[in-house]
Amino acid sequence: MCLSHCNEYRTIQPLSLRQNLFSARCEAPPPSLGSDAWMTTHIQRSALLPYPAQALYDLVNDVASYPQFLPWCSASTVIEASDTHMRAKLEVAKGGMSQHFVTRNVLVPGQSIEMNLEEGPFTQLHGLWVFKPLGEKACKISLDLSFDYAGPLVRATLGPLFNQAANTLVDAFCQRAKQLNA
Question: Residue 129's closest CA among 159, 166, 78?
Answer without folding.
Answer: 166
